[in-house]
Amino acid sequence: MDPLADLLTPANIATALVLMNLLAFAAFGIDKALAESRSRRISEATLLQFAFLGGTPGAYAGRALFRHKTRKQPFSNHLHVIAGFQLCAGVFALIWFW
Question: CA-to-CA distance for 95 and 2, rounded, in angstroms?
Fold first, then answer.
C-alpha cells in the first residue's frame, strides 16, 4: 500500500485539524496574556501560520473570546483572506471529489 494514503486517513486529517485549531486558539490566548504583561509576544506571522495550516476557526474563536487582534486592520484582512482561500479550496475539493 501507499504510505501516504495510509497516513492521510479521514481520522488522521480530522485529528490534525482539531489539534491545529486548539493550537491556534491557545496561541491567541497566550499572546493576549503576554501582551497584558508586556512580555515578548507571539508574532503575527506565527498566528497567521496557525490559521493557514487549518486553524482558522480556532483563530477566529480566540480572537472573539480573548478580544485580541480585533482592531488590527492589516492582521484582520490577512486572516479574512486566509479564511476565504480555505473556503474556496474546500468548495473546489468537494466539487472535484464529488
Answer: 25
Q: pLDDT of 21-44, one tens digit each?
A: 999 999 999 999 999 999 999 999
pLDDT at 54 exceeding the cut of 80: yes
Per the structure block, which three cell numbers stand in for 22?
Answer: 486548539
| Nearest residue to 54 via CA among 25, 92, 95, 30 | 25
Q: Enter the pTM of the model.
A: 0.88
Q: DSSP letters of 39-93? A: -PPPPHHHHHHHIIIIIHHHHHHHHHHHT-SSS-HHHHHHHHHHHHHHHHHHHHH
